[in-house]
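Q: Here's a chain of 97 amino acids. Please give me its 3D structure as tokens.
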Amino acid sequence: MQKFVITMEGELRFGDVEYHKELLPWRNNECFGGGFWKIESGSISLYGRSYDFGAPDFDQVRSIDWTGIGGKPVSLFFYPNYPDKDIAEPILAHSKI
């Protein structure tokens, strides 16, 4: 499943994994939350929350590991009421980090 986490170092990581903890550094079981992602219309839609780590705290993001989504920076949007897309919170434009 397409999931993301925000590590304790502030790195936003993406991957296609079964558990959010698979995206964390070895033996690290703490993070600033996570959720799910999908590519839509040339950007990445982030939504939901990690069952183990809770909702993402995007204020903690200091860097992005783009390798889990193809290596290319794109715009990111968080949809707190997904699949309702009336509210979209831009997280980071590709030029910010």
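Q: Can you summarize the key feature?
A: DSSP finds no helices and seven strands in the chain.
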